[in-house]
Hints:
Layout: E1 31-32, E2 35-36, H1 37-41, E3 43-46, H2 47-52, H3 73-91, E4 95-99, H4 100-103, H5 110-131, E5 134-139, H6 158-177, E6 182-185, E7 191-192, H7 200-220, E8 226-229, E9 239-240, H8 245-254, E10 261-266, H9 267-272, H10 277-286, E11 290-294, H11 313-325, E12 334-336, H12 348-374, H13 376-384, H14 391-397, H15 403-412, H16 423-432
Amino acid sequence: xxxxxxxxxxQYEGVNSKNKYAFRHYNPDEIILGKTMKAHLRFAxxxxxxxxxxxxxxxxxxxxxxxxxxxxxxxxxxxxxDAFFEILEKLDVDYFCFHDVDIAPQGDSLEEFFQNVDTIxxxxxxKMDQTGKKLLxxxxxxxxHPHFTNGAGSTNNAEVYAIAAAQVKKGIDISKKLNGAxxxxxxxxxxxxxxxxxxxxxxxxxIARLFKMSVAYAEKIGYKPQFLxxxxxxxxxxxQYDFDAATTMAFIQKYHLENDFKxxxxxxxxxxxxxxxxxxxxxxRVYEALGxxxxxxGDLLLGWDTDEFPTNIYxxxxxxxxxxxxxxxxxxxxxxxxxxxRSSFEMEDLLLAHIAGMDTxxxxxxxxxxxxxxxxxxQLKAERYQSFKSDLGxxxxxxxxxxxxxxxxxxxHDTVNLESxxxxxxxxxxxxxxx
Length: 435
């Protein structure tokens, strides 16, 4: 059975194509800076938004038309596997990501849930063997179930902490079973509502303890994916402990996790934190901790996590420039943690939305490659910091100066000639690279 009988294999047809089921910019075989576009981009499809999101919102019921409905939750889960791999095949996307609860119903107990997960991951593994598709990362949903009301690793209840540990253990087992490249922790409720009854130090120490247990278990079973933490500033907790890249890196370094953990960064989460996505990516690069990204975009007019498919070329260009400067994103990738709009409710919209996102990132890659080849940003920065190539600047950078010596210099040279950055002109030049 085909879930998308009216859509053939999506292929590159160029900018003049009128076929809405074709790529106009994403040409997987095109060579960019010595690598194929496909190798640069390492696209992944997110199971949760693609397969389980039903179009409902706080003001409206489910609207999405989905042809994998069945008489029981497990039958639905099995049909979703077939539909999901058809999407991967028709888009020619190599990677995918999922939470444990995305793929299998939770049932009435943890034991039943894990049995369901085993059944569905057996089917997923069969599909992977048949198609060559790969698991970019998986994770445990430790925020939806009522027992995670007060967090998972940060919970105030030791029994809940044990349940969280069990789900992480199972998640790492799944990662080994499916040869996952990465394993993600997203602290959906790792935060607090009020400091009046919260011991922040205690909770963060317990989160770190869970992370260290996870590393130890992975080493014990002889399989260690790249561990990733995904920052988010708010929603659902009022204050999340992993607020942004810098906050998360402070946590990683405080608890000596830097040898095992990097960051999985999401564009919409950057917006909620009051940052640009390129800011978050740059912070991660400074710490040598850029692991993987979730590709989406937020709506600046709305104050929540809208998870729109990325269609802003300006943003994807600056994103891809950071990835190029990082030397690539492997073993991470570009995961479409994005959902179709409520008005895009037909089955084919799942393909059309991914095509739009892939084309937008392809355009961003090409523009970023031009910027890198021309040394656009390097030249700007070299000019801006040129005073540090003077004798004084070189001496500062060589750590040969002190407050005494610099104060003595300043007393004799207190007239400074500042130069304009011409930022508006710079932005105008940047626009030339986008088209």
